[in-house]
Amino acid sequence: MFSRMCLRFPWLSPPFISPSTSRPEVLRSLLTGHKFRQLFSSRRRIKFSQGSIKFLQTLCRISVPGVPVRETQPPSKFLKDKKVVPQADPPSAEDVNHLYQLIDQSTKLVVLTGAGISTECGIPDYRSPNGAYSSGFKPITHQEFVRSSRARRRYWARSYAGWRRFTAAQPGAAHVALASLEQAGRINFMITQNVDRLHHRAGSNPLELHGTVYSVICLDCGFSFCRNLFQDEVKALNPKWAAAIESLDYGNAGSDKSFGMKQRPDGDIEIDEKFWEEDFHIPTCHKCNGVLKPDVVFFGDNVPKERADKAKEVARECDAFLVLGSSVMTMSAFQLVRAAHEAGASTAIVNIGKTRADEFVSLKVNARLGEILPRVLNTGSLSIPAVH
């Protein structure tokens, strides 16, 4: 599922949703060899619960020998009050053990992550029960961006206004857990649908299937450069906008001083049309004066062939394929799960709610990633302890 972040600009601070502090005492020999294959061939289903629960929010540190501990900050009151992450029951000891077995018995594990890993950091997704689609939001399409200067002006105005809060997001417990598993040699290859680079900040370097908002590219000549430089150029062309964004933090929201900007309940920024229509100017390409867009795959566009081919290659060659926080509704993601399944790999999904691949994956768990992954690190022979 392509997130998410191209138009959604949440009020971000560094939340860190902690895992449960319980340690399941599961012996490594509980499910091994033939029993493990029997378990997965039964295509176990764990049904999504609609119930509401409260969970403890504390700081969490994951330590691995030789891997520096990354400090986090507590979540802001804004994020505590928002339903960015869909509701789900805490993962059971059985859920943790099944996921542990998949990782422990794999020698060529491929992981695919989606928007669900970033919702726990305060970045809204699209398709979850609390996602953008539920409020009637429609993301910009590639075709709309290319053909309409008005659409580009609207996109970049909102994107510029939301950039500071977007980049304030910090990696969550799940990001750090995956980076720890990588450095311990338990993950062979990682692919992400996300464009937020939270994996990179946690210490991973995944294949970015849908690109990243941290780069800007020219549609005419292909020249690309850093998004922060683009932000500086926008500021130089629109000096009053910087003051307006500051005003949004402490001034009168919706006033002319703030260019009509308001924070919406879901974290997006609403801007009065008259301001971005008349008073906002977009930089052009340094090389050819062409049209600039974020280096991401918008809805309606295709993943670059070289990138798609690489992802399919690793999916076909893996012995286990694990989807984390994705409904795999986009064809680019669904094809990877299907390719791994057809090649005989064990397939599993951890996601809150239904996914497009539920009918054929071997294991499906409904759980928050920040709760289940750190517990997996504590299980059996992985020997990667989580310190609370």
TrEMBL record:
<feature type="active site" description="Proton acceptor">
    <location>
        <position position="210"/>
    </location>
</feature>
<dbReference type="InterPro" id="IPR050134">
    <property type="entry name" value="NAD-dep_sirtuin_deacylases"/>
</dbReference>
<feature type="binding site">
    <location>
        <begin position="351"/>
        <end position="353"/>
    </location>
    <ligand>
        <name>NAD(+)</name>
    </ligand>
</feature>
<feature type="binding site">
    <location>
        <position position="221"/>
    </location>
    <ligand>
        <name>Zn(2+)</name>
    </ligand>
</feature>
<dbReference type="GO" id="GO:0008270">
    <property type="term" value="F:zinc ion binding"/>
</dbReference>
<keyword id="KW-0520">NAD</keyword>
<dbReference type="GO" id="GO:0017136">
    <property type="term" value="F:histone deacetylase activity, NAD-dependent"/>
</dbReference>
<dbReference type="InterPro" id="IPR003000">
    <property type="entry name" value="Sirtuin"/>
</dbReference>
<dbReference type="InterPro" id="IPR026591">
    <property type="entry name" value="Sirtuin_cat_small_dom_sf"/>
</dbReference>
<feature type="binding site">
    <location>
        <position position="288"/>
    </location>
    <ligand>
        <name>Zn(2+)</name>
    </ligand>
</feature>
<feature type="binding site">
    <location>
        <position position="369"/>
    </location>
    <ligand>
        <name>NAD(+)</name>
    </ligand>
</feature>
<dbReference type="InterPro" id="IPR026590">
    <property type="entry name" value="Ssirtuin_cat_dom"/>
</dbReference>
<protein>
    <recommendedName>
        <fullName>NAD-dependent protein deacylase</fullName>
        <ecNumber>2.3.1.-</ecNumber>
    </recommendedName>
</protein>
<feature type="binding site">
    <location>
        <begin position="325"/>
        <end position="327"/>
    </location>
    <ligand>
        <name>NAD(+)</name>
    </ligand>
</feature>
<keyword id="KW-0862">Zinc</keyword>
<feature type="binding site">
    <location>
        <begin position="193"/>
        <end position="196"/>
    </location>
    <ligand>
        <name>NAD(+)</name>
    </ligand>
</feature>
<keyword id="KW-0496">Mitochondrion</keyword>
<comment type="similarity">
    <text>Belongs to the sirtuin family. Class II subfamily.</text>
</comment>
<dbReference type="GO" id="GO:0070403">
    <property type="term" value="F:NAD+ binding"/>
</dbReference>
<dbReference type="Pfam" id="PF02146">
    <property type="entry name" value="SIR2"/>
</dbReference>
<feature type="binding site">
    <location>
        <position position="285"/>
    </location>
    <ligand>
        <name>Zn(2+)</name>
    </ligand>
</feature>
<keyword id="KW-0479">Metal-binding</keyword>
<keyword id="KW-0808">Transferase</keyword>
<dbReference type="InterPro" id="IPR026587">
    <property type="entry name" value="Sirtuin_class_II"/>
</dbReference>
<dbReference type="InterPro" id="IPR029035">
    <property type="entry name" value="DHS-like_NAD/FAD-binding_dom"/>
</dbReference>
<dbReference type="GO" id="GO:0005759">
    <property type="term" value="C:mitochondrial matrix"/>
</dbReference>
<feature type="domain" description="Deacetylase sirtuin-type">
    <location>
        <begin position="89"/>
        <end position="388"/>
    </location>
</feature>
<comment type="function">
    <text>NAD-dependent protein deacylase. Catalyzes the NAD-dependent hydrolysis of acyl groups from lysine residues.</text>
</comment>
<feature type="binding site">
    <location>
        <position position="218"/>
    </location>
    <ligand>
        <name>Zn(2+)</name>
    </ligand>
</feature>
